[in-house]
Amino acid sequence: MSMVRGKLLTRGAEGVLLVLLCFFIFGPITGLVLWSIALKWYWPHVLPQETGLDYWLQALGLQKSLAIGAVSITDSFNTSLVIALIVVAVVMVIATPVGYVLAKRNIPLKGVVLLLFLMPQAFPQQPVLVNLLLMFSKMGLAGTVHGVLLVHLMVSLVFAVWISSAAFKSVPPELEEAARSIGASGLRTFLRITLPLAAPGLLASAVFVFLTSLDEFTGTFFIGLPFVTTLPMLLYSSSGYNLQFASVIAIVLLVPSILFMVIIERFLKAEYIGGMGI
Predict the structure, then answer these.
(1) How far is it, in rounded angstroms, from Cα 145 to Cα 150?
(2) Is pLDDT larger for residue 163 or for residue 264?
(3) Structure confidence by residue, pLDDT tens digits, 220-236
(4) Are 235 and 247 in contact (CB under 8 A)?
(5) 3-class DSSP assignment, residue 274
(6) Domain boundaries, position 25
(7) pTM higher than 0.85, yes or no?
(8) How far apart are CA 119 and CA 139, in angstroms?
(9) What's the longest Cα–Cα distance across the chain?
């Protein structure tokens, strides 16, 4: 009898924890969805009194109305997308060979090199970005897309190098040695053996870089104002006066994050994560 009671209590506790977990995960998302379609929602009503897609249509540029206080997000979205894609391309060109060398070559002070890539994240961002703003202002990069790109590159390179290094480290050296033993050159071994096996980890690295750049706010705020407006900047400026419009932008930013995290879950293997402690 006591065993049955113990099992019931255990299952009950697990059920409560599951409900709480679902609430903390899906509660905020549900709130965003409700606010994005709420045309009229006043206290103490639990649900919106009037709903519609007006804010979505306005944000997507399908209608123009001054009454709802929202603008089209297409220009900001295109800016964010272009910056993120450029950052992914440049960062992966740098991180792939660097990650390979750190994983496969016995270089001196390897741990120090990896720590140096973490240095931009080791200090509070605000003081670093204030100094960068002063430097970029003298170089004519403040308030430009080029300046924002450089900041995003600095932030994203950390993740790319560490994940790429872990991906290459997860490739069994025996396979590379077997390829060389039958006459394959180092380049051919890399292209036919190492790179295909590390490709899922490199894809995960590119996804992290893309999401980091797409959601980057602080660097864009300090370096890009007032001429570069990305989606996070638009979300910040609208969150203080228009919750419906801010919720639409938040959902637009959330969708690629969810899609790409599903991709990462499929391709980022446990050995890649274990390899990050090089």
Answers:
(1) 9
(2) 163
(3) 999 998 889 999 999 88
(4) no
(5) helix
(6) 2-52
(7) no
(8) 23
(9) 78
